[in-house]
């Protein structure tokens, strides 16, 4: 597949395009996310299996959202059934994407712990016992956070387009994650701007009792589809 390189300004265009898709049927978009949130809450009540299952199925649900975006773009209706459309095709590869991402998260957590965890934990326990925070503990926590961020960014890059590539192009999980990473790497400027604007919008959306998130979360989800259409030149087969 051909991966296009776009200018940094496209990061904002993706968000604007996502909002345009949201505006086509805001009621169903919000309903879809409430259903997804409810499913997540139910699974979270069954530890430790529930959260693992939710992580494995997250790409399946994301694929359903992408199919919903495609339907809207084609002039069709967005439906509740789109949330579960990922269970009808390439489901095993979508679950594999979730599994690889989950393994990546565990590896990152392990590396952070091995590198800084022992020191941070001992200093943190010492501070709790003495009810004060030392500069050493603060520095350790900052180092752990920066290391985690540095390791998570490549993982997120590999995950970003993977569900979309699997559901639209029938790729294997590994192929999709490799291509997703390369696509993000070739468009770092656009993704950096996208990330910065998204953070600002999330903060603003959370101010009015979090009500703005009802618009912001669907918009950013739809923006993923817009970014996929912008970067990948070939048409989807689904």
SSE sequence, one letter per element: HHHHHHHHH
* DSSP, total strands: 0
If you average the pLDDT, what whole number results? 89
**Largest beta sheet, briefly?**
none
Radius of gyration: 19 Å
Compact overview of the structure:
This protein is mostly helical and 238 residues long. The protein contains nine helices and no strands. It is globular.
Task: Provide structural commentary.
It comes from Novimethylophilus kurashikiensis. The chain crosses the membrane at residues 26-46, 52-73, 94-121, 141-168, 188-217. This is Transmembrane protein. Keywords: Membrane, Transmembrane, Transmembrane helix. The model has no long low-confidence stretch (mean pLDDT 89). With 238 residues, the protein is mostly helical. The chain has nine helices and no strands. α1 (10-24) crosses α9 (213-231), α4 runs antiparallel to α6 (162-169) and α5 (135-160) crosses α7 (173-185). It has a domain at 10-89 and 161-231. It starts with 9 loop residues before the first helix and ends in a 7-residue tail after the last helix.
What descriptive keywords fit this protein?
single chain; 238 residues; mainly alpha; globular
Topology of this structure?
Layout (H helix, E strand, L loop, with lengths): L9 H15 L1 H19 L4 H25 L17 H40 L4 H26 L1 H8 L3 H13 L2 H19 L6 H19 L7
Helix pairs in contact: 1-8, 1-9, 2-3, 2-9, 3-4, 3-6, 3-9, 4-5, 4-6, 4-7, 5-7, 6-7, 8-9
């Amino acid at each position: 597949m051909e991966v296009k390189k776009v200018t940094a300004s496209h990061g904002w265009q993706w968000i604007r395009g996502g909002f345009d898709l949201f505006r086509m049927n805001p009621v169903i978009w919000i309903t879809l996310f409430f259903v997804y949130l409810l499913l997540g809450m139910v699974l979270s009540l069954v530890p430790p299996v529930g959260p693992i299952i939710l992580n494995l199925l997250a790409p399946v649900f994301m694929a359903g959202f992408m199919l919903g975006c495609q339907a809207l773009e084609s002039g069709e209706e967005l439906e509740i059934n789109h949330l579960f459309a990922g269970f009808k095709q390439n489901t095993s590869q979508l679950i594999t994407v979730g599994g690889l991402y989950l393994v990546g998260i565990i590896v990152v957590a392990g590396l952070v712990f091995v590198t800084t965890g022992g020191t941070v934990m001992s200093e943190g326990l010492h501070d709790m016992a003495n009810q004060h925070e030392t500069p050493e503990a603060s520095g350790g926590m900052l180092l752990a956070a920066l290391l985690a961020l540095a390791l998570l960014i490549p993982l997120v890059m590999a995950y970003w387009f993977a569900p979309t590539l699997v559901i639209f192009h029938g790729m294997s999980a590994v192929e999709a994650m490799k291509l997703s990473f390369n696509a993000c790497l070739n468009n770092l400027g656009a993704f950096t701007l996208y990330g910065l604007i998204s953070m600002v919008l999330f903060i603003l959306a959370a101010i009015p009792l979090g009500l703005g998130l009802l618009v912001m979360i669907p918009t950013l989800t739809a923006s993923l589809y817009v970014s996929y259409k912008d970067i990948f030149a070939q048409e989807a087969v689904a």
